Amino acid sequence: MFPHKKILLLLILSFNLPGILLAQTDSSYIETENVLEDILQEPTGQSDDSNLFDILEQLKRNPIDLNKADISDLQQIPGVDLHTAQIIIKHRKRYGNFFSTQELYAVQGIGKDEVKMMMPFIKVIHPSELQIEKEQEQGAVNQILGNTYFVSRSRFSNDLQTRRGFLEEKFQGSKPKIYNRFYLKYMSNYQFGYIAEKDAGESALNEFYSVHFAIKNLGFIKTLVISDYLVEFGQGLVLWSPYGFSKGSDAIYPLKKKGRYIRPYSSATENNFFRGAAASIKLNDFIVSGFFSKNKFDAHIDTVTGEILSAPVSGFHRTQSEISKKNAAEEKVWGARIDYSKRDLLSAGFLYYNSNFSNPFLPKAIFNLKGNSFNYYSFYYDLILSGINVFGELAYNGTSVASINSFQLSVSRDFAFIASIRSYPRNYISLHGYAFGERSGATNNEFGIYTGIKWRTSIGLLNFYYDQFKFPYATYNNPMPSEGDEFLIDLLSKPFEHVATRIRFKYENKDITVDKDNRKQLVKRLRQVFRFELIYNIAGKLRLKGRFEYNNYRVASVIEKENGYLFFQDIRYAPSSHLNIYGRVIFFRTDSFNSAIYEYENDLTGVLTNRALFGEGIRWYFILRFRPLRFLTISAKYSETYKPKEKNLGSGYNEIEGNLDNRLSFQMDINI
User: Fold this and answer.
1) Using CB atoms within 10 A as the burial measure, which of 5, 123, 157, 496 is most buried?
2) Is 330 left (phi over 0), alpha (psi -120 to 50) or beta?
3) What is the pLDDT of residue 115?
4) Whole-number percent of the chain with pLDDT over 90
5) What is the pTM of this model?
6) Are 262 and 273 in contact (CB under 8 A)?
7) For 518-550, what is the HEC assignment?
8) 633: how many CB neighbours lie within 10 A of its CB?
């Protein structure tokens, strides 16, 4: 085919197929939202969890190829357990390569809902597409047009009320929060990315920035990243990204971490990433990696001794005090790892790294960080035998050994069981780890036993987990050893074709510290949460979702118990592939912050927040997502929280005078 004819053909396809492309893209986004709702549970603290959205967005940008994936690759996809991955591999071996992702609907043993959840994160490279790639290589212009991708996102968010820090002129910058990022990708081998963010109250638009250049799967080079990157290893005991999934309504998926070796850093989280260079090379069944980093971080340093008193991780640089801590200390890291993989049978690896700080840490307690040089050694394994998966990691920090070992049994498509034992000694401190646990990411001073099941019954999908844990030494909240246990039952049913119901009960029984008889004592705190949801999809364009949630909070030493409840109704309307409309109204009332009810809510693409709703009030928000052109999406969100009985909202420099908190946000996404 002549070059000018191919360009003409591309233009014709671009103008004649926008409806198909729009519908696919919007459907993909909606499915991503649904996946997050299924994985995440009601959180236990108010936070910005946008990084969890980023995990799925990265998987969408780099979908798993069904014709090349092994079992470990497939298990990265949300909702894909060991049994489902084995069915896909078995089908491919028996009938040959997949010709389309839609072929999954015909694979016996995989349900329609499972396939629908997988669709945003999978792809199939058809032989004809490979031929097109070869033809494109014949001309430089065609190569650029056909294989270069540009993705950008710009977000502007502003509180309409003025917070105390601005009124008292404590914040040095302007009110809006501004986020910009873009990626430039050539073929599937080269990528350049840049992120810049400014929080509300900060001065510069690039108060935080991240940049990377990456090469992937080029000859013997598996990955090469220059500038900002992450190293994910094993089950996160020594190295992982600064975020990850924890216990949730899916009892199986969050427990096993799926490491992606070395990868570019693409988050706006301002800590716990590496800045330097890292590379992995593939040698038959082995992957050998090395990495070096020299990165500054926020620290409060004693002006007399030069010791690090604390290392704030909020990322805020608004006040003079916060600005004085910015990039005050430096960490140098170097390390190496070797991984062995026998396809669909065994994966194992060994890692060593050294971390050296510009200033020593001053410990506030006996087992806190001390000194300025730290060494870590780690070994992980992942063994698959038929329907059994045994995996775990052991790590040594020069003082003690931490470990997590898990066992998963997939009896059939309908039933899966998992059990895990974790042991993180009190004198084991992981600088860059993020392992599974009760205190998500806090990989020290914890021992726990977790069991969970996923069971597809005649009445719906049942998930259940039970977790027992104890903290052998004092924690931040408790000055003495403590313990607790919790369980969660979640039943998702579809009594009718377009109707789904969800019933959830969560029980938490934990030690907390109270002042009694002029001394601190440990007492049991019981928290029980009941949730019911009704979801109704109408003709694929309109989805209605209602939730009622009741929260009971009781402390053993207090006679009176606290209660809270929440009710919301939301609507998602997609009248065309060009337009999505979201809205939610929430009514809530709790006796205090102790009985607060946490609620994940829809937001602009890439943003995932949960809010602690307490006291009495109403919250509502409205989101408009419009795609006027095939490559352009414009989004806007307005949110408002009103508490009629309050005189002020928030605390500290974030306090708002009055009982109204509202915010307006805009976002523009370009995908070429």
Assistant:
1) 157
2) beta
3) 86
4) 55
5) 0.86
6) no
7) CEEEEEEEEEEEEEEEEEEEECCCEEEEEEEEE
8) 23
Instruction: Give the distance, in angstroms, between the CA of residue 186 and the centroid of all CA atoms in the same chain.
Output: 26
Domain ranges of the chain: 229-468
Report yes or no: 436 and 107 within 8 Å, Cβ to Cβ.
no
For residue 364, pLDDT over 80 is answered with no
Residue 453 forms beta bridges with which residues? Answer: 417, 464
Give the residue, 606 or 275, on which the prediction is more confident: 275
In sequence order, which residues have a C-beta less than 8 Å from that of residue 432 and are 6 or more positions away? 238, 239, 240, 272, 333, 355
- Per DSSP, the residues of 311-344 read ---S----SHHHHHTTT-EEEEEEEEEEEEEETT
The tens digit of pLDDT for each residue in 129-179 reads 544 444 444 455 555 556 788 999 999 999 999 999 999 999 999 999 999
pLDDT per position as a tens digit, 277-297: 999 999 999 999 999 999 999
670 conformational bin, left if phi > 0, alpha if psi -120 to 50, beta if neither: beta
DSSP 185-218: EETTTEEEEEEEEE-TT-S-TTSEEEEEEEEEEE
Helix (H) or strand (E) holding 351: strand 346-361
CB 243 within 8 A of CB 608: no
DSSP labels for 465-534? Answer: EEEEEEESS--SS-SS-EEEEEEEEEEEEEEETTEEEEEEEEEEEEEEEEEETTEEEEEEEEEEEEEEEE
Nearest by Cα to 71 from 58, 87, 94: 87
The token pair at 72 is 């470990």
Per-residue tokens: 356: 């050296």
Please give the structure tokens belonging to residue 23.
């519908």
> Which one is predicted more confidently, 140 or 547?
547
Token pair belonging to 44: 């236990």
Other residues' Cβ atoms within 10 Å of the Cβ of residue 445: 21
**Contact between residue 330 and residue 301 where contact means Cβ atoms under 8 Å apart:** no
- Match 């994966």 to its residue by tokens: 347
pLDDT, residue 39, reads: 66
